Amino acid sequence: MHIVFLVAACASILAVILICIFMFANGIPAISEIGWANFLLGTKWKPGNDIYGIFPMIIGSIYVTAGAILIGVPIGLLCAIFFARFCPRRLYKILKPAVDLLAGIPSIVYGFFGLVVLVPIMQYLFGTSGKGLLTSSILLGIMILPTIISVSESALRAVPQSYYEGALALGATHERSVFFTVMPAAKSGILAGVILGIGRAIGETMAVIMVAGNQPILPNSILSGVRTMTANIVLEMGYAADLHRRALIATAVVLFVFILLINLLFSAMTAERGEKKKGRIKAFMNKRKMAVKNKKRGAAENGQ
Predict the structure, then answer these.
(1) Is the dihedral of CA 87, 91, 97, 101 positive or negative?
(2) What share of the chain is helix, strand, coil (3-state, %, to 5)?
(3) Buried (b) or exposed (e) across 10-47, using 16+ Cβ within 10 A?
(4) What is the C-alpha separation between 58 and 53, in angstroms, rounded?
(5) What is the pLDDT along the chain (304 residues), one digit of tens a residue?
(6) Are 210 and 107 within 8 A, CB to CB?
(7) Secondary structure (DSSP) of 203-259
(8) Neighbours of 178 (CB within 10 A)
(9) Which burial class, exposed, middle or buried, applies to 245 when counting CB atoms under 10 A from its CB (0-12, 13-18, 19+)?
């Protein structure tokens, strides 16, 4: 079984390595041929004229993801806190399966929901086409809710009950005990849920295509149409050839680097927090040892 587990782990690592080799082997030469500055900072995407600038798609992906975070993270975190510490058991049995069901709904169904419900609402409120940055952010904010809620709730429930009871014993109310004791203790798990939600938001394709407007231009307001990097790849890969196809693969390389940087940042923050926690524990243990030594020394002097 040890060999079986080792082979399974190596297979996963090999799959990631092969994906990286394929993307970088096809994407980096294309970026070099187009020009790094022209490709990453160019504001025009015209494959017919061999002009490949993905800066509007990068900005579109960042804006849509940021909007989804602003909408989804507060709602998801508060919902997780409610499930973990405030929700009655009977109500929890109804609400929890409903949230889990959200995670299993296909992206295309979310896209249809956005097209049929959110887009007409935006048309009525703002008098625009209804497709744009704000609509995409709202839809993605809904889509990342199950991930944030599930991971954050698990992190909150993993906090020892003694933390909560200690805060109550010191005179804190139920709400203050949860928000100022349990939440900080679960910070690492909550952050993991947020990072997973960001990964889903920045990599979402089908739902965004249906409500974003898909205009390869720099957005000038929250109601402007945008095109994300994933949408750009899906919309044009079917008929792309030669440099156009390699430019789309290079776009996937940029997206992959974005997600890789997010994961590395999360790993660095987690490692730094772990080192600080170990340092505090070590300092506390040293102080405790010194106190015990001083007490023994005082007892010995008194005995003499």
Answers:
(1) negative
(2) 80, 0, 15
(3) eeeeeeeeeeeeebbebbeebbeebeeebbeebeebeb
(4) 10
(5) 999 999 999 998 999 899 888 888 888 888 888 888 888 888 888 888 888 888 888 888 889 989 999 999 999 999 999 999 898 888 998 888 888 888 888 888 998 998 899 999 988 888 888 888 889 999 999 999 998 999 999 999 988 888 888 888 888 888 888 898 889 888 888 888 888 888 888 888 888 888 888 888 888 888 888 888 888 888 888 787 788 888 888 888 888 888 888 778 777 776 666 556 555 555 655 666 676 666 666 666 666 5
(6) no
(7) H--HHHHHHSB---S--SSTTS-B--HHHHHHHHTTT--HHHHHHHHHHHHHHHHHH
(8) 20
(9) middle
Please answer whether residues 64 and 77 qualify as being in contact, where contact means their C-beta atoms are separated by less than 8 angstroms: no
Biggest CA pair distance of the chain: 96
CB 191 within 8 A of CB 273: no
Helix (H) or strand (E) holding 275: helix 242-303
The pair of three-digit structure tokens given for residue 218, joined into one six-digit string: 């720099």
DSSP letter at 89 equals: H
Contacts of 65 (CB under 8 A, 6+ apart): 140, 198, 201, 202
Q: Residue 283 has which token pair?
A: 């300092």
How many CA atoms does the CB half-sphere of 49 hold within 13 Å?
Answer: 5
Task: Measure the CA–CA gap between 52 and 247, rounded to whole angstroms.
Answer: 7
pTM of the model: 0.80
